[in-house]
Amino acid sequence: MKTVEIKLGVRTYPIYIGISLTHVGDYIKDKNITGKVLVITNTTVNKLYGDMVVDSITRSGFDVSITKIPDGEEYKTLDTVNGLYQVCMDNHLDRNSLIVALGGGVVGDIAGFVAATFMRGVPFMQVPTTLLSQVDSSIGGKVGVNHPESKNMIGAFYQPIMVFIDISTLKTLPEREFNSGLAEAIKYGIIRDKKYFTVLERDMTKIKALNIERVEYTVWRSCQIKKWVVELDEQETKGLRAILNYGHTIGHAIEAATNYKTYLHGEAVSIGMVCIAKIAKELKLLNSMWTHRIERILTRAELPITHKVSTNKIIEKLIFDKKVLNGKVRFVLTDGRPGRTVIKDDVPEALIRKVLEEQKV
Ligand code: NAD
Ligand code: GLY
User: Domain range spanning residue 305?
Assistant: First the structure.
């Protein structure tokens, strides 16, 4: 087992990596929870791991209930949150209670938002079961839901009291979802750690074959890099946390242009990372050896690096983002090589169009 500690003063919390779900209850025991425990999951994850987690928490002597939301990003709404508030009321949750988010990023974001807002804040714990949620969304306290017009528009920064990662849950994860999470792991190599990028290149075959030791290392190293960013810029006010959006500006525009139906998040980010690497190359910030290596590692992860979306539609979405973001679209670019970044808000539209066209098949 590996541990990473997110040090945020009174909000400091541990991430346990490589530990069985059968021990969730033991770890809650150490956390001074005297009230009821409510596990929030979805219908898919419940069938796989619901009983295991509830049994573990029961064995540790807690009064525990479990509630399921439907599976899907389309349920990441305030309506779902409202239903969950009712479940919290019905179960008499109070500030000594604990909400456990069991599932991928959708469950984690929703359950975290419920925890942040019910009675102005109930302790919560993340038990992420997708690779994407294990390397990214369960860490750092961004919680929230979608607005009909824009993703993740309603939310809060609210840190969990612990993150509990059982790598073996990835065995049941569909391969496409696993690959989607790999995009975020590769992102960390590009934005922060050239050596990690090289390790991912070396280990890709083993990681894809679910070699537990290599997957555990990948989750651990990714969590460490996210820790570095979150500790320095918890609420994204200092300009650093934005680097986690590497490849995401174009990725989000691609997701929005296809109504979130064609690409998984990591797939769109993969295309976005290739586009932004090529933009960096055109701006003489990255050489072609690195753009090739970025394309190659994503291809080996079986992620898309080309798209079939109308360039005009993607640009339209980028312009929509620009309106929302006070007239500036910020792009995170590599500065010279993976591991170093620069943020630019003056990338010419013509260059973005050119690269999007080049990546279109
Ligand atoms: P997800 O939560 O939709 O999970 C993907 C699919 O895998 C779902 O069908 C889910 O039921 C299923 N699943 C989960 N665990 C499983 C398992 N172990 N075995 C089999 N199936 C399993 O998707 P995701 O990629 O985990 O998360 C995406 C969400 O995360 C988006 O809403 C995104 O906005 C959010 N996100 C948040 C942050 C953050 O910092 N809060 C960061 C990145 C992404
Ligand atoms: N996933 C982006 C962030 O946590 O800031």
Answer: 175-358
Number of Cβ atoms within 10 Å of the Cβ of 130: 26
Token representation of residue 212 = 């537990």
**Which CATH number fits the domain that encloses residue 219?**
1.20.1090.10
Q: How far is the CA of 154 from the centre of ligand 2 (A)?
A: 14
Of the candidates 26, 34, 113, 100, the residue with the CA atom closest to the CA atom of residue 67: 100
35: domain CATH number?
3.40.50.1970
Same domain? For 188 and 87 the reply is no
Single pTM value for the model: 0.97
Same domain, 122 and 43: yes
User: Tell me: the pLDDT tens digits for 77-97?
Assistant: 999 999 999 999 999 999 999
275, 355 Cβ separation under 8 angstroms: yes
pLDDT digits (tens, 9 = 90+) for 174-231: 999 999 999 999 999 999 999 999 999 999 999 999 999 999 999 999 999 999 999 9
CA-closest candidate to residue 190, choices 200, 181, 205, 180: 200
Kindly list the protein residues whose Cβ atom lies closer than 6 A to any atom of ligand 1: 42, 44-45, 48, 71, 73, 76, 103-107, 109, 129-130, 132-133, 136-137, 140, 142, 152, 169, 172-173, 177, 180, 265
Co-location of 155 and 228 in the same domain? no
312: buried, middle or exposed (CB in 10 Å: 19+, 13-18, 0-12)? Answer: exposed
Number of structural domains in the chain = 2
**Rounded to whole angstroms, how far apart are CA atoms 335 and 341?**
5
Q: Do 10 and 154 fall within a single domain? A: yes
Distance of CA 107 to the CA centre of its chain: 11
Choosing from 131, 149, 170, the residue where a domain stops is 170
